[in-house]
Design goal:
alpha/beta, 13-stranded mixed beta sheet, single chain, 3-stranded antiparallel beta sheet, 409 residues
């Protein structure tokens, strides 16, 4: 039987933050792009990758018993995997960021986003592409990621361009909300300087452990390690949104292997989630997907826009050591979080191979707490959480069937 929640935990402080700030729009220009389409891997390469992955799955324990409580029903056409399962558009631009100054070029971001959205939907204009997902009456939540501050975050320039397109569709600024779990990270990011007056910014926890702005009626109950509090509640604000746009980064993760679309929308939308990785053997393999599949998160998350202008190949989800920051200079677009994460995993793996360090799939990596040493790990990493999420119907993880369209903007 699930444990009852501890009374002292329920007594935690109850605060949140909503900010209303301003932004001056930039006038940006369009540029021509080139497109190429391909499947991700040849059959021989795919079999080699699959064999390596199976080695990593071999000693994983059985899935814990989850109890999901939600009054929200799954949409007949849920946002994840959405209308484009197994399809990903990757847009690269050499001019999107100045590495020496670490400055983002807003004009290049606009070109990348317009090209990505048009190619994903097949529409001739960016406005029509956005109208495939958003209508003027929508209340739109934009799930950002701020944990890799100051560099590897959902870039203000990317978030501002998303909001600009929403307004073009006819969504009023006060119908848009930038949200994340921790208010102090949102305050430090100062997104409001880039946004129109009226856009809301919501952090569910003004102080760590605050539960006031979580929904006690929508939660996942699971006992991982005999912890006192076995419940993870959804951010209450999510129930107000009719649509959610997920804006993750390209980062490795010490426990989950990588953190992308799935982990951003899952661990970033629920309380008490870090209990899954408090010991060397974690439960990130199944917990990430189980949280992402909870309604209404699954049905209302209709668009994935991965900010890969910058990335982290080791030490994630943080970006404390600049040695581990790199510049993929790309953005990925889709409705399938699994497919995007599977491709992002390949990018992180390739970078780690270039750097001559251990694979994220290697479950024999020596235990060590020096986060500046890429060849040791606090946890046994679980990049297989992406494949597990595919078994829940959240998307396509089979590299042989993922369709990738690559664009140079």
């Amino acid at each position: 039987m699930p444990q009852e929640r501890s009374p002292k935990i329920r007594a935690n402080s109850r605060h949140s933050t909503s900010l209303h700030l301003h932004w001056n729009k930039d006038i940006l220009n369009d540029h021509d792009v080139g497109i190429r389409e391909r499947t991700v891997v040849k059959r021989r390469t795919f079999l080699q990758i699959s064999s390596a992955a199976l080695i990593g799955i071999g000693n994983r324990g059985s899935e814990p018993a989850y109890r999901v409580v939600s009054a929200y029903k799954t949409s007949p056409q849920p946002g994840m995997p959405g209308p484009f399962p197994g399809q990903v558009v990757s847009v690269c631009s050499a001019k999107c960021i100045d590495e020496a100054k670490d400055e983002v070029n807003p004009a290049a971001v606009r070109d990348m986003m317009d090209a990505g959205m048009r190619q994903l939907t097949g529409e001739s204009s960016a406005l029509q592409a956005w109208k495939r997902f958003i209508v003027p009456t929508d209340i739109v939540g934009i799930k950002v990621n701020c944990v890799g501050k100051p560099k590897v975050v959902s870039s203000p320039e990317v978030v501002a361009e998303i909001v600009r397109n929403l307004v073009e569709v006819g969504v009023k600024p006060n119908q848009v909300c930038i949200f994340d779990r921790f208010a102090e990270r949102l305050i430090e990011m100062n997104y409001g300087l880039h946004l129109p007056k009226g856009v809301q910014i919501h952090g569910a926890e003004a102080s760590r452990g605050s539960i006031r702005y979580y929904d006690p009626a929508t939660y996942v109950e699971v006992d991982f390690f005999g912890e006192d509090d076995t419940r993870s509640e959804m951010i209450a604000m999510i129930s107000k949104f009719t649509k959610i746009i997920n804006v993750p980064n390209m980062k490795d993760h010490g426990a989950a292997g990588v953190t992308g679309c799935l982990k951003n929308i899952a661990y970033g939308s629920f309380s008490n989630m870090d209990r899954s990785h408090r010991f060397r053997k974690t439960h990130t393999y199944s917990f990430v997907g189980r949280l992402a599949a909870v309604e209404p998160v699954r049905s209302r998350t209709v668009l994935q826009i991965m900010d890969g202008l910058r990335g982290v190949w080791h030490g994630g989800p943080f970006a404390l050591n600049p040695r581990f920051v790199f510049y993929p200079k790309q953005m990925m677009f889709g409705t399938d979080p699994v497919a995007i994460d599977r491709l992002m995993l390949g990018i992180i793996e390739a970078k780690r191979k270039t750097e001559g360090v251990v694979s994220l799939w290697d479950r024999t990596v020596p235990e060590g707490r020096d986060r500046n040493d890429p060849n040791v790990s606090v946890y046994i990493r679980e990049p297989g959480h992406i494949d597990f999420a595919s078994t829940l119907g959240l998307g396509v993880s089979d590299l042989a069937t993922i369709k990738l369209k690559e664009i140079e903007a």
